[in-house]
């Protein structure tokens, strides 16, 4: 697991108060770009490694993430529309540089319209309960009954997700993170692959002797990490609920299974 620096580069385009069109984001520089961890020096005639922190416009190496991630956006409804019609895939990335190029050029969460959402999920996973990789999982969440969303809090959670610091190596639980903007509150969620249930008979986990209590402890540890990144006081809790329960109740506010 590797932490992602929280002081990413700020391209010149961010001096404008309006976000630039997504198709102009400098996701990768021109020319050959390789992982900065492999010692490659291609891209500059003198063989010098230039990272985005040296030159945000002409870097020749990038810092690869452990996973590929996709940013999704739910736009506010303009009438009677299904939620799936409002959900739009924005862009996919797999490096630190690409993340900052995107983050620095999209509308901050604090400026999103009511009933908007950002979803940052591992590539290949749709931010929906019905997705095969989500349907047996659940969600840690925290609701803030205050004014505008705190951009620093949302950024910290995203960095923790793409930096793989929310879970232990091998847990394979974190699917993505979400921020919901509503009229009276804003909410941050962390989606997991399982919901603390006992592994199915015949599965690899069952053969390894894992039980429901072990799964719950793993999720609780992730919940505590999530709470730390939200910078909540000990007296406040984050709650975990299963997607199946939410689907059955028809609401994302299903009764919590447990809290930390």
Poorly predicted runs of 5 or more residues:
7-33, 38-43
Q: Give the distance, in angstroms, between the N- and C-terminal Cα atoms.
A: 23 Å
- Strand % is 15-25%
Please give the radius of gyration in angstroms. Answer: 19 Å
* Helix/strand structural class: alpha+beta
Q: So what's the oligomer here?
A: single chain
Strand order of the largest sheet: 4-3-5-7-8-6-9-10
Tell me how many strands there are.
10
The number of helical segments is 6
Question: Mean pLDDT, as a whole number?
Answer: 80
Q: Helical proportion?
A: 10-25%
Q: Under the CATH scheme, which class of the domain at 69-95 and 109-259?
A: Alpha Beta
The CATH homologous superfamily of the domain at 69-95 and 109-259 is termed RNA Cap, Translation Initiation Factor Eif4e
Largest sheet: 8 strands, antiparallel
Question: Per CATH, what is the topology of the domain at 69-95 and 109-259?
Answer: RNA Cap, Translation Initiation Factor Eif4e
Shape: globular
CATH architecture of the domain at 69-95 and 109-259: 2-Layer Sandwich
SSE topology string: EEEHEHEEHEEHHEHE
Distinctive features:
single chain, translation initiation factor activity, alpha+beta, eight-stranded antiparallel beta sheet, two-stranded parallel sheet, RNA Cap, Translation Initiation Factor Eif4e, 260 residues, 6 helices
